[in-house]
Amino acid sequence: MLSYLAAFESEFGPFRLFQYITFRAMMAGITALVVGYWIAPAIIRKLRDFKQPVRTKEEIGEEMAQKHAGKGNTPTMGGIIILVSLVFSVLLWAKPFQEVRYIDHQCANESCGETFRLSSIQDKCPSCGHEPKATVSMFALETLEEGSSGGQSGMGMRQSDEHLNSYVLTALVVFIGLSIVGFLDDYLKVSKKNSKGLPGKYKIVGQTLVTLVSLYILTSSHLSSGNMREIWIPFYRHVLVDSAPVWAIGVLLFFVLVGSSNAINLTDGLDGLATGCTVTVALAYGVMAYIVGNYVLSESLLVKQVLGVGELSIVCTALLGSCMAFLWYNCSPADVFMGDTGSLALGGLVGIIAFMVQQPFTLVIVGGIFVLEAVSVILQVSHFKSTGRRIFKMAPIHHHFEKCGWAETKVVIRFWIISLICSIAGLATLKIR
């Protein structure tokens, strides 16, 4: 909302700062950090009656049950802190509408001749798919003055229109939707005083509904419908699939959202582990979102510009700030756990951002710790079912290192370091193409 203050630059010069994504991203992070830190004590007091159900020694063994016995008095559902601070910050600093500049252009295909709006989100004829051979560049299109033309045959005057930013909307829908699914799971755990919570099939139903809603928003919006049907992979400079079927995009989106949300959910087993790793991932995708949304940077790194995606850097910095505020209370010994309210939502948000910046497969690198945790569980379960033996002393893998004698804080900090390295490696893929 505050981005509109830039329109009053003539009245007060510093208001021009509100037009810059970099300024608003920085302020979004600070806002989320301050709000999260401020509201956390009150929320934690309210959550005192909602204490974390500790798994019994029959479930995790006597040794681990004794190590984690003291956590039974710690309140859960602390993901509410992240939810409130992030959503408030994003609504305050993200730009809700994206300006799209275009030129009315007549298709050069003699059998078509249709006039359409040539823009950075529509660079070919919607009827016949013909691409103009001589058009103004997308950079020129964005910098031309209102009412001027590209000076080329078939070009009209440069005009502009505004579209709801479907990328920011989708990010909020996924985050809030999975927060609700996680909240129901946590509430059932604390009300029934057991660690099972919401049955797995109902979690999948909730995640599927969130996937379908987000898919509808992205494919029905004029701003995002074309770009979201493209499939890109790391280390390759050209689009792999130019226009994938909607059902294929839906399947990919489902696996990205479900995989990332469940992976972070598995990682959330030690004080501060999932939160700290999410901080580095949010930082990496914040940088990616800014690059993909910026014409000059995307051109220099051979990445396709996606108009409107730059605003996701504000979502990422708000995620960064809210996680840092929560980590203040979640570091060992934790005053509060995020629960599924936080872990499912964080995973879903990271997954949908990776998908929207057209880097879904890079998530395997950036979120290396989350992948490691999920894979350790899959390997442990499958190997045990087939051979009756275990690969790790316990899964997820952070518990394996606990059983190897590592202190909880040592496991957490070393995993943070690995997560930071993975995030840097993920960013490097933008240059190695």
Structure, described:
The structure is a single chain. By secondary structure, the chain is mainly alpha-helical. It contains 16 helices and 3 strands. A 3-stranded antiparallel β-sheet has the order 2-1-3. Strand 1 and strand 2 form a beta hairpin. Helix 4 runs antiparallel to helix 11 (312-330) and helix 9 (273-293) runs parallel beside helix 12. The protein is globular. The two termini are 37 Å apart.
Give me a quick take on this structure.
With 433 residues, this protein is mainly alpha-helical. It has helices at 21-46, 57-60, 62-67, 79-93, 138-143, 166-192, 200-220, 246-267, 273-293, 295-300, 312-330, 339-356, 363-366, 368-387, 397-403, 408-428; strands at 97-106, 115-119, 155-164.
